[in-house]
Write a structure and sequence with these properties.
Number of domains: 1
Radius of gyration: 15 Å
CATH superfamily: Gcn5-related N-acetyltransferase (GNAT)
Order of helices and strands: EHHEEEHEH
Number of helices: 4
Oligomer: single chain
Shape: globular
CATH class: Alpha Beta
Distance between the termini: 33 Å
Strand content: 15-25%
Number of strands: 5
Strand order of the largest sheet: 1-2-3-4-5
């Protein structure tokens, strides 16, 4: 871990910083769909539609973590959470999730969810530790126009 969280700033990611957010995801080992939903154009449109939920963690101007929230007006969704490896265990991920949660609560969302791939034990532990419960009765289906979307 590089340092504590005292000097870490959480703020909206600007349009010019979207590519850096993707780099943080990649450096963190988060798989992306670079030819599909995670194209720079798609991410910029998503950020433009709801910039408050496209959040970065910065230390001395360097982006060290990212979270992308989405809001369907019924539920808030925590997506694409990642923290650079040197900063893991410092509380940055928790800070990012709490920022997303506070935005959702201010909007009146009473249900906040996240989807975690089965292999991702680190994320499962984080969300369990901050009060999320696994919903085993929910089955997730998708219909994709192509494999990489």
């Amino acid at each position: 871990m590089t340092g504590d969280t005292k000097g870490v700033e959480l703020r909206e990611i600007s349009d010019d910083e979207v590519e850096r957010a993707v780099s943080v995801w990649l450096e963190s080992g988060l798989p992306i769909k670079s030819q599909g939903r995670d194209t720079i154009g798609n991410l910029r449109r998503l950020r433009e539609a709801d910039p408050e939920l496209f959040i970065g963690a910065f230390e001395e101007g360097r982006m060290i973590g990212v979270i992308l929230g989405t809001d369907d007006r019924r539920k808030g969704y925590v997506n694409r959470l990642s923290v650079l490896p040197d900063w893991r265990g410092s509380g940055i991920a928790k800070m990012l999730v709490e920022r997303c949660e506070s935005i959702f609560r201010a909007r009146g969302r009473q249900v906040i969810c996240t989807m975690i791939e089965e292999y991702n034990d680190e994320s499962k532990a984080l969300f369990t530790n901050i009060g999320y419960k696994r919903e085993d009765e929910i089955v997730y289906y998708t219909k994709r126009e192509a494999e990489d979307v």
